[in-house]
Design goal:
Blueprint: E1 2-5, H1 20-28, E2 32-36, H2 47-52, E3 56-58, H3 61-66, E4 70-75, E5 90-94, H4 102-110, E6 114-117, H5 129-149, E7 171-175, H6 179-191, E8 194-199, H7 202-212, E9 217-220, H8 223-232, E10 235-238, H9 253-256, E11 264-267, E12 288-291, E13 294-297, H10 307-328, H11 330-336, H12 338-342, E14 344-347, E15 350-351, H13 354-360
Parallel strand pairs: 1-2, 1-4, 2-3, 4-5, 5-6, 7-8, 7-10, 8-9, 10-11, 11-13
Antiparallel strand pairs: 6-14, 12-13, 14-15
């Protein structure tokens, strides 16, 4: 099979779909891999590394998108590029179609595209292996960045995350006890912060406590509990996710008034629409804005700031799925790998997710 890896074009996106070693594994199985020139440079992988792995380097985006029967990318193409995808092409990426415009999805339907969401691949227990690899990195990074945002020079209240003897640490409130939330809690506990974790599921909270093995305050994410925790929070981290679907809005604009001035909110659900009503996507080098006296950080691709680590983690998690499609073909791969099948938004243009049909008002096969 011919496989394409385009260079990412979104602002400050430094990751690349596969490492040279991942490409080499595909080439050794008899597949042709086309890598757009410069795709891996920011992640520490120059074109020469891909050529040594057996890939063919191509020098324009149209060729990078068009050469592969399977296109593997970090982020899906911009909606304006959908028409450039080859008919009946397979595209694996973080799609976030739950927040797409119906007219854009119709272009994919008309071109009979198979769209597989890396964020939506999950096993029968609800574990999402590819998304997990990025969430673990995002959680750890969020605490590192959040500790900086609490400082005066970055707009915060001048609080040291872990405090010092005789001075209390920062109060970190995490919305969501999934992989990202637990990773953030672990990192924050290591820094000495006071951590409060909220989730709609008591089971998720119980699992988090068992994993963290450290003193963490937990609440069920009801409106009264949200209001209670917002009132004392110095930093609120939104890590709410429903695989493949839009994130629910948990914190409304009026609820921000409960927070102390110059507190910080970090919406790491922003790539799926955001869990704060006041969130809008931001990017480096200006990742924050102030609204109603609260500092907002809403960078959707935070793992990109650790591009080399993130690329290696993504390759490890996603390569088995890419390899199976390439080796066995799409139909057989989907029949053999139920977790991969759960990640299919569209198959040759036909909508495969009932919730997506309803959300977009579209019909599918």
């Amino acid at each position: 099979m011919d496989i394409s890896i385009p260079r990412e074009v979104r602002s400050r996106e430094h990751r690349v779909g596969l490492t040279p070693l991942g490409v080499k594994a595909l080439v050794q199985n008899g597949h042709r891999v086309f890598v757009e020139s410069g795709a891996g440079v920011a992640a520490g992988h120059p074109d020469a590394d891909y050529e040594s792995a057996g890939a063919q380097v191509v020098f324009n985006r149209s060729e990078a998108l068009g050469r592969g029967e399977l296109v593997f990318s970090i982020l899906a193409p911009d909606a304006r590029e959908y028409a450039r995808l080859a008919p009946r092409q397979i595209m694996m990426a973080f799609w976030a179609l739950a927040i797409a415009r119906p007219e854009d999805v119709r272009v994919l339907v008309e071109r009979q595209i198979t769209a597989i969401g890396l964020e939506a691949i999950e096993d029968e227990h609800g574990r999402a292996p590819v998304l997990t690899s990025m969430s673990e990195i995002a959680g750890a990074l969020a605490v590192t960045v959040g500790a900086g945002l609490l400082l005066n020079e970055f707009g915060g209240k001048g609080i040291l995350m872990g405090g010092v003897p005789g001075v209390a640490p920062a109060n970190l409130v995490i919305l969501g006890a999934g992989v990202l939330g637990r990773a953030a809690a672990q990192a924050a506990l290591g820094m000495g912060a006071q951590v409060t974790l909220l989730d709609v599921s008591v089971g998720h909270l119980r699992e988090a406590l068992a994993q963290l093995r450290s003193p963490v305050t937990t609440y069920v994410a009801t409106r009264p509990n949200l209001e209670k925790t917002l009132a004392f929070a110095d930093l609120v981290l939104g890590a709410v996710a429903v695989h493949g679907q839009r994130a629910p809005v948990l914190v409304t604009r009026p609820m921000l008034k409960l927070m102390k001035p110059r507190s910080v909110v970090m919406d790491l659900s922003i790539d799926m629409g955001g869990c704060f009503e006041t969130s809008r996507p931001t990017s480096f080098p200006s990742p924050t804005y102030e609204l109603d006296g609260i500092l907002h950080f809403c960078v959707p691709n935070l793992p990109s700031t650790a591009a080399r680590t993130a690329t290696h983690a993504l390759t490890s998690a996603a390569l088995p799925y890419v390899s199976r499609i390439a080796d066995a073909g799409l139909e057989r791969a989907l029949s053999e790998m139920p977790d991969l099948r759960r990640g299919v938004y569209l198959e040759q243009g036909g909508l495969r997710q009932d919730w997506l049909r309803r959300a977009l008002g579209l019909t599918g096969e």
